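task queued by scheduler; priority normal; single chain, no ligands, no partner chains; default sampling; output format set to structure tokens
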Amino acid sequence: MAGHLVEDPVFRIRYRFTRSADPGGEEVQHVEMWIDPGGGVSPHLHPFMEERFTVVAGRAELLGGRRWRSTGPGETVVVPPGTRHAFRNRGDAVAHVRAEARPPSTLQAFLKDVAGLSRAGKLTRPGLPKPTALLEAAVLSHHYRDMVTLLFPSPPPIVQRLLFPPLARIAQRRGHRAGEFATLA
């Protein structure tokens, strides 16, 4: 695992990020993930981004739409833009998964910010913000709204779109900025 790893203790994932261009010149975000047993991310969607997940080692469950699929080494799941998806490790060994995102957008910055909030103890296990971190979560959700829609158990996306912009403005007046969370803890 050469290179800098970003650790997210709440989602139980370690990330390594790289970028490249495909043969056609399109930029691709590569995300290598080591997902500990019990780790994974909550359902979400990317309005304009396609993601391709390939299991390198171990087993991972990948949600595409409404169906979970158990995958092993060499298996790939492609998630088209706008599709609800998630991934998790229900096994007893670390799952190594490689993801490709096209276009890359702000995915790397978002995952680093979320990991920073996790390391700072501001998120609960399903990834929901603790009450004391609501303003930080509002800044994060509002800043990355064009790249990701978080499908928390609650509030639903329509409520997030109405509630988070004014909360984000309050948080920004108090000095919170997206990008600052990556350096927490």
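post-processing summary
- The domain at 6-105 is CATH 2.60.120.10 (Jelly Rolls).
- The first strand starts at residue 6 and ends at 8.
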